[in-house]
Design a protein that fits this description.
With 777 residues, this protein is of the alpha/beta class. Helix content is 57%, strand content 7%. Among the domains are: 244 residues, Rossmann fold (3-Layer(aba) Sandwich); 95 residues, no CATH class. α6 crosses α10.
């Protein structure tokens, strides 16, 4: 049987691209486990291109590998090998390789643990990801391949029978017509069109993502069917140019649709999905044709790479996230960080493979390799089962100039294109600073006082001695800084937006500071609390003092602005009213404000949730201090990590209670809730505390007027279609109340919802308004 070296090469190349793809996720504007604070749209373009066909190609090659594996093994041996080579590495990966990834992710998102081992216990106690910490992360591909293999085994056995081979021969004869190969996208398109409406996102959840499951299954099955068709491979090679041209054309059409943002229209969704699947298959067919023409040769590198691919696949994302977690906080350029992660990942993974895994048989088994006998030459144990298993042949010398290809050229070319694409000159500068915040250190929950901030410095900062006004931008509840600096809000990126608005003359040159306000409890609501820490003082004292001492700022209230969105919009408004001697202007976007009915309508005092929490308090009271703190952290974090809005708001409400109703005389965690056991008078006092967080504006505005110093500009903005009705009413109530007390303010209403127009509003409304209000040098 002819060995398909072209498939070997494509397999190695595909997994190499996977490593580059996952490194690129650190720097693209797409959400991921860990993110660099500055991102590049150039990565988005390259990764969107790769994302269309990289995993479908691997599923296709995996299906092809099953054909060759069943040629080599009996059905029973094949069954056993699939379990050994897939399930054993999966279990090992989930227990050993993946936990460091999740640990870095939780720390990055301000989760808190006593140590890695404190985190590791939660892998077994908190359930599955994303609420819990047991996950297969990037290894999702392995259970899919195992399930596909077991599910389709009866069908594959029949296709290998004499009768089935006859059917395959007729299919191959039909597919040797080039026009027929252009229709191979139809099964995937049908699955997409029929099932994606019910499972719209690729969650890689084996048991609850049937749209993704059936879609990937079509590539796996077609890969099996085409594997034995030599004539089909020759047809692919002969017409590779046509498939490549079709792929380029389809991708250009998709790129236009994405840039025009029109593909969500219901009437166009069927056509869009058909086009997307056609694009995917044309790239796969082009790759297969080019591979058959130019990569059908053996090489010593191929032999080594074939065995190393599976361990590299298992290890690479963990190494990327470990390196990325530390590198994203450094003030290096994107190209330098990208190069450091790529080279570091390759070097570390290769060292682990070559020095440890390859040499020790027990590790070879759990990484999907064969047991190496002492007399067997190094590297001759045969390629791993995933995603190919073909009989080994001796290494032969390559002949012809085209046969001297290695993977170094395509990988280096892709890396160079990424580095070049994102190395354009930027005018402003974004820096990450770490500092100690004494105000936060005073808390009863062990929240770390080591904090950080993102700082935008305007274009002329490095070329002059002038001083600049400062905008302090408070993040929303449990919101990472990169979402404001990296494009998560409808493409808004702080540095690019500021550079653009400065060039247009809509915004003066100013420093923008985004301090971290998130922690394992979610956030402190910019209030002082003995439980969660003094987050009001953190912003008004620690952050302002650090910025004024480390940057050339104008140290006057008239030159300081404050802004925020959601809970931070409320925090910005309240802080500005409390400290008009520190901040001169405020712009609150969709702020969490109560009117007189807000506390009742927001669902914060849900009796069922409070009863469940009080039951846990009783259980925690019997534990020692370290144990109950860990239990409380787990209780909150599993809710804040939940994709369920109901579960998330359970954690949100607990964090709110810790900020507004702390009582150190109560049992741990020292939070006061209303209840029959309190009595009427105490319940009334607790309700006033809960009201004071987002409400109590009559008293707050009276205190502001008593200070005798006015803010230069107050703007409150909300969306007419905001999904939180109490928030809309609250914004109107507070604005009207200010006007009745002769406090000048502007109420802005736009047509969006809570976040739907946020990216555009941040750049075109908030930044220019604050800029006009700030006094420059």
């Amino acid at each position: 049987m002819e060995r398909r070296y072209d498939l070997d090469w494509l397999r190695v190349i595909a997994f190499a691209l996977l490593m580059l793809f996952h490194t690129g996720m650190l720097f693209s504007t797409w959400d991921w486990h860990v993110k660099n604070f500055e991102t590049s749209e150039a990565f988005d373009f390259v990764m969107r291109f790769l994302h269309q066909w990289r995993m479908p190609l691997l599923f296709f090659i995996s299906g092809s590998a099953v054909w060759f594996a069943m040629e080599r093994y009996s059905s029973w041996r094949f069954f056993l090998e699939r379990h050994k080579r897939l399930l054993l590495p999966l279990v090992f990966g989930m227990l050993v390789v993946i936990p460091p990834q999740v640990y870095c992710e939780r720390l990055y998102h301000r989760g808190q643990f006593d140590s890695f081992w404190d985190f590791y216990r939660t892998v077994f106690t908190l359930g599955t990801y994303p609420e819990g910490n047991l996950s297969w992360h990037h290894l999702w591909y392995v259970p899919y391949i195992w399930t596909f293999s077991m599910l389709m085994l009866p069908v594959f056995l029949w296709l290998r029978s004499s009768r089935g081979r006859g059917v395959l021969a007729r299919v191959h004869g039909w597919l040797q017509r080039p026009w027929a190969l252009f229709l191979v996208f139809v099964p995937a398109a049908i699955c997409d069109i029929l099932l994606r409406p019910f499972w719209p996102s690729d969650q890689n959840n084996l048991l609850a993502d049937w749209g993704n499951f059936t879609h990937k299954l079509t590539f796996f099955v077609i890969g099996f069917v085409l594997a034995s068709g030599k004539g089909v491979s020759d047809t692919l090679a002969a017409h590779r140019g046509k498939f490549l041209a079709a792929a380029v054309g389809a991708f250009a059409m998709l790129q236009y649709i994405w840039s025009a943002d029109v593909y969500f229209a219901n009437q166009a969704i069927i056509g869009y999905r058909a086009l997307a699947n056609f694009n995917t298959w044309m790239w796969i067919l082009a790759a297969l044709g080019l591979g058959r023409r130019y990569l059908s040769f053996n090489h010593p590198f191929l032999r080594r790479a074939n065995e190393a691919v599976y361990p590299f696949y298992i290890l690479h994302q963990t190494v990327i996230l470990l390196l990325g977690y530390y590198l994203v906080f450094l003030n290096w350029s994107i190209p330098l960080k990208f190069l450091a992660v790529v080279t570091g990942t390759f070097a570390i993974t290769w060292a682990l493979y070559a020095l440890v895994i390859q040499r020790w048989n027990p590790l070879r088994i759990v990484f999907g390799l064969k047991w190496r006998r002492a007399a067997t030459p190094e590297g001759s144990g045969g390629p791993p089962l995933i995603p190919e298993l073909m009989p080994a042949e001796p290494v032969q010398s390559a002949s012809g100039a085209s046969h001297k290809l290695t993977l170094l050229a395509p990988l280096a070319g892709l890396g160079l294109s990424l580095l070049t694409s994102c190395s354009g000159r930027e005018h402003g500068r974004l820096e990450i600073h770490s500092f100690q915040a004494p105000s936060v250190s005073r808390n009863a929950l062990g929240i770390t006082y080591r904090q950080f901030m993102a700082v935008y410095l305007p274009p002329s900062y490095g070329d002059s001695k002038r001083r600049f006004p400062v905008l302090y931008w408070l993040p929303n509840f449990k919101t990472d800084l990169w979402r404001y600096t990296g494009g998560a809000y409808q493409g808004f990126r702080l540095k690019q937006a500021m550079d653009r608005q400065i060039r247009l003359g809509a915004v003066q040159e100013m420093i923008v500071v985004v301090p971290n306000t998130a922690h394992w409890l979610g956030g402190g609501y910019d209030r002082n609390s003995p439980l969660a820490g003094n987050w009001e003082d953190y912003v008004a004292v620690d952050v302002v003092r650090y910025v004024d001492s480390h940057f050339r700022t104008l140290c006057a209230a008239e030159a300081r602005g404050l802004t925020g969105h959601g809970t931070a919009g409320k925090g910005a408004l309240e802080l500005a009213l409390k400290h008009p001697d520190i901040f001169g202007s405020v712009y609150a976007l969709s702020p969490s404000l109560f009117d007189h009915e807000g506390l009742r309508d927001c669902g914060m005092l849900d009796e069922r949730q409070i009863a469940a929490f009080k039951t846990c308090v009783t259980r925690w009271s019997a534990m020692d201090e370290p144990a109950r703190l860990r239990e409380f952290r787990d209780y909150v974090q599993v809710r804040l990590n939940s994709p369920s809005r109901l579960r998330f708001f359970e954690g949100f409400n607990i964090a709110y209670a810790a900020a507004v109703a702390p009582d150190l005389d109560l049992p741990f965690p020292h939070i006061a809730y209303p209840g029959a056991e309190n009595g009427a008078e105490k319940n009334a006092a607790i309700l006033r505390q809960f009201e004071s967080g987002f409400g109590g504006w009559e008293e707050k505005l009276s205190d502001y007027l008593a200070k005798g110093r006015s803010l230069h500009s107050i703007t409150i903005e909300y969306g007419r279609n905001d999904e939180y009705a109490w928030l809309r009413r609250g914004a109107e109530h507070v604005s009207a109340l200010m006007k009745s007390m002769r406090i000048e303010n502007t109420l802005v209403v736009h047509e969006g919802s809570h976040e739907s127009m946020l990216g555009r509003r941040l750049e075109t409304a908030m930044l220019p308004t604050i800029s006009r209000a700030l006094e420059g040098e």
